[in-house]
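Quick one: C-alpha cells for this chain, please?
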Amino acid sequence: MAYKRILLKLSGEALMGDRQSGIDPERLAEYAQEIKNIVDRGIEVAIVIGGGNIFRGVAGASNGIDRVQGDYMGMLATAINGLALQSAIEAAGIKTRLLTAIKMEQVAEPFIKRRAVRHLEKGRVVIFGCGTGNPYFTTDTAAVLRAIEIGAEVILKGTRVDGIYSSDPEKNKDATKFESITYKDVMTKGLKVMDMTAFALSQENNLPIVVFDMNTQGNLEKVVSGENIGTKVDK
C-alpha cells in the first residue's frame, strides 16, 4: 500500500448520481463498497463530505439569504450527507464515527482531534461533517485542515473527471490531462483544483492531493495502492 492513512474528499453533488438533487441510494452503496474494499486492506480512512446536493451557501447568498446563515445551512447539509454515508458504510459491515464541527450530540460526536485519531487507529471510518464550523470556509478547506490535524498522508479528491486538465474536459475536447503537477504550476496555470484557501494550506503543509474519478469502480483501491490514477499535485 502506498498510503496508510488517507483523507477522502467527496462533493455533495457526487451523492446525487443521475438525480438533480438529493441522495441516490445506489451511488451511496457503490461508494460504501469502494471504501470497504480499502478498509479491508488495512487503510485508515477519514472522509470529508460536501453539501452541494442539498444546499450551497454561496448560491443561497446570491438568492438573498444572508451569507453567514447560508453557510450554516450548508454545514447542516453536510451533516445530513454524513449520516447517509455513515449508514451506507455500516450497512457494508464497516464501523464508522461521524464527527461534526457543530455540536449535535444526538446524531454525532463533536470533533476532537485525539478522538478522531483514536477511532482511525481502531479501524473505524471517520466522517467529518459541518466543514470547519465557520462560515466563509469551504469543505475543501475543511478537508485539508482535518487531513493535517489527523496526520493523513494524502488528500484523495474524488470527482466526476479522471484528473486535472488544462481546461474543463467536459467543455473542451482538446483539454490535456496532467499525470502529475506541482503546486506552483497549478497556481501559474490558474487551474481549479481546490479553492485558493484550501490549496494554499495544502501547499504550506506539503500535503499532496490526488484528483481522480471516484465513479469508476476500483479506482479508489488503485490510488491507495500507488497506481498512476488521476493527477497528483505535489511540491
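The mean pLDDT is 93.
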